[in-house]
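Question (not urgent): is this output format expected?
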Amino acid sequence: MSRGDWARWPATKAVANMDAVRAAYDEVYVYTMGRSGFILQHVVDAFAVQTASAGSSPIGVVFGLVGLYLFAERQFSGREVQKAHMAFGRKKREWPRVYLPVPIGNIELSENMEFAVNSSV
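Got this back:
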């Protein structure tokens, strides 16, 4: 996708009820701080991807996608994902812009939290 194509994308993605999305993120962020395996990294990566827009920094979107891939497909722990991010970040480079489908998706963290609570009964 050329730089000109990106100009047609909205600068911010309309996330339904962003206040609720941010509140759910903050709640999970605090809950995962200090947990074994540094699962907080997965929360940060998921939020970066969920809220990505054409105005997002390319490194944030790429790192979020790579982190989620390493977790879901390669079973990396949060600590291992963090180390991969650190290794990728050592070399300065221009990170590619990622094509963002519109809409990105409609599953929000609050829905996952509700499912987890109801499933543990």
